[in-house]
Amino acid sequence: MSQIPEDLKYTRNHEWVRVEADGSATVGITEHAQESLGDLVFVEPPEVGTQVQPEEACAVVESVKAASDVYAPISGEVTESNDELADSPETVNNDPYGEGWIFRVQPADTGELDNLLDASAYQELVAEED
Amino acid sequence: MLDAIGVERIEDLFDEIPDSLRQASIEAVPSGMSEMEVAQLMRRRAARDEQPACFLGAGAYDHHVPAAVWEITTRGEYYSAYTPYQAEASQGTLQLLYEFQTMMSELTGLYASNASLYDGATALAESVLMAVRANRKAKSKRILMPRSVHPYYRRVVETIVANQGIDLVEVPLEDSVGRIDPEALAQQEEEPFAALVVPQPNFFGALEEVDRLTDWAHERNALVIGLCNPVALALLTPPGEWGSTGADIACGEGQPLGIPLSSGGPYFGYMTTRKDYVRQLPGRIVGRTVDADGRTGYTLTLQAREQHIRRSKATSNICTNQGLMVTAATIHLALLGAEGLARVAAVSHERTRELVQKLTAIDGVERLFDGPFFHEVPLRLPVPAREVLPALADRGVLGGFDLGEAFPEWGPALLVCATETRTSEEIDQFAAALAEILEKAGQPASA
Question: What is the pLDDT of residues B228-283, one digit of tens each?
Fold first, then answer.
């Protein structure tokens, strides 16, 4: 069973969201997602300054066998991108909830965070898919 | 079987196709012929070609192809239309494609090449799609498409991108020089655009101001697509070195590199780009690597872009390429070498100068534009080109491309071209025939 931290929010597209102390939201892909994709060879985070909408494809992760879009979980402006991943995409495999974060969004409407799944709901979703 | 899938009649399977489209009749298709009859028919048709002196360019060029090119290309080891998936059984073909990519990278001055596309026009359409994908700063689907791009290419691009919400904005010509009008271009900077297409040489054989255009587009967050004749690039600045930062994508028609004219195809398109955009490049890409024992090997690479992995979000749904044409082109380039290709380009230019000099010596024939050209020049005629061309053909001369239909604003005009294969005798023959035809055409007026 892959790890699903209790303190994060999740999407049906297998992104995780952590609300930081400064109000921004950090986004990455879940351990389940990185396991399904396999060894990542390329990550393309969104440009800083991009306005995103929920469910909008804004980043790409590419493994040796698949390429997949990463969707924005909430609306807002991208304030930071993890540029380290350009040289070490495997960080997403090794530490999906830590160093493997992909981008940060300044939420336009914090209420949208309530639409996301909590850990137990996400766990159910993963169990259904397996 | 119909029962099993719950359908009564086989016609029901085609329900989705509207009736109006199902009326096609095949009555016009004649009944079969024997092999002997077909051979006779084809010989009669081939004889109709005679062997006219070809001064027609407009996108396809009559260059000399050394006999060795197709002798080697059609050997069993190479004779395949496709890019091989199976690296363990296809090292020869894969290595050849890798060499092709290296040559195109060098010619265009850009980092990465794909293993070819269908033809020059579709390569331009793919470049437009790629520029819209790759330009994440402009957030625009506008493409500035100059009128100096081949009119047929513009139609192909329109057909391919029209339903993707991409807006092709036509940039007019500066009349006296037949190049992109800088003032008209400046009017487009109010709204963001994803890319500017820069043809070099352009459809009229004229040289665009590529450095200035490239910098202008880059200052406005747009990409630059260089549409280039690969033979001309042996002499001209490669797109990768245009302006202060170079074009972002180069593409064009590969036919001049060893492919016979053969009534318009098969040809191939080429496409190269800078390293930053390699994942946006459509088509097959061959990479060089090492096997478990450290030996050099070749294999398809970056396949996550392609439709068998990326599905509907693939960079392109043109999945195959023109493997056999590219094989010929690679052998052609290897035989010529960089110096040989540059000589082909230089001699073509010289022949065209001679052609222009001799044709413009005729009363009423003059250059439509001033300015530098490569191996193609539009000429103003005193009578419509469509009346002149058949008379020239009767005298064994394929006289050029009639500009009257696509560019009616210039009046009677003919686009002429001379490659290294045209001799001085043929140029004299053309000039004499044209003078005679125009004199006859002018008689009623002068009498």
Answer: 999 999 999 999 999 999 999 999 999 999 999 988 889 999 999 999 999 999 99
CATH number of the A9-125 domain = 2.40.50.100
For residue B160, the tally of other CB atoms under 10 A from its CB is 18
The rounded radius of gyration (Å) of the Cα atoms in chain B is: 24
B275: tokens are 């390293």
Q: Which of A105-114, B167-176, B297-306 has the lowest mean pLDDT?
A: B297-306
Task: Name chain A contacts of B310, Cβ cutoff 8 Å.
Answer: 67
Instruction: Report yes or no: B171 and B180 within 8 Å, Cβ to Cβ.
Output: yes
Q: What does pTM read for this prediction? A: 0.88
Please name the fold of domain B67-330.
Aspartate Aminotransferase; domain 2 (3.40.640)
The distance of B1 to chain A (nearest Cα, Å) reads 34
How far from chain centre, in Å, is Cα B422?
A: 21
CA distance B54 to B418: 8
ipTM: 0.76
Question: Are B345 and B235 in contact, with CB atoms under 8 Å apart?
Answer: yes
> Is the Cβ–Cβ distance between B416 and B400 less than 8 Å?
yes
How many of the other CB atoms lie within 10 Å of CB of B188? 16
Query: Residue B161: what pLDDT?
Result: 94
Q: For residues B266 and A55, what is the distance between their CA atoms, to the nearest angstrom?
A: 43
B298 contacts: CB under 8 Å, gap ≥ 6: B87, B91, B94, B95, B97, B98, B286, B287, B288, B289
Q: Do A62 and B136 touch (CB under 8 A)?
A: no
CA-based nearest residue in chain A for residue B310 = A67
- Kindly write down the DSSP assignment for every residue of B64-76, as one continuous string: ---HHHHHHHTST
CATH architecture for the domain at B53-62+338-440: Alpha-Beta Complex (3.90)
Q: Which of A44, A47, A67 sits opposite B309 (nearest CB)?
A: A67
How does pLDDT run across B298-332, given as a tens digit for each residue? Answer: 999 888 788 877 777 788 766 566 889 999 999 99
Q: Which of A62, A65, A71, A85 to mutate to probe the B interface, most B CBs <10 Å?
A: A62
Nearest CA in chain A to B315: A67
Tell me which H or E stretch contains B307: helix B307-310
Show which residues on chain B lie within 8 Å of chain A, measured between beta carbons: 136-137, 279, 304-305, 309-310, 313
Kindly list the residues from chain B whose CB atom is less than 8 angstroms away from the CB atom of residue A63: 304
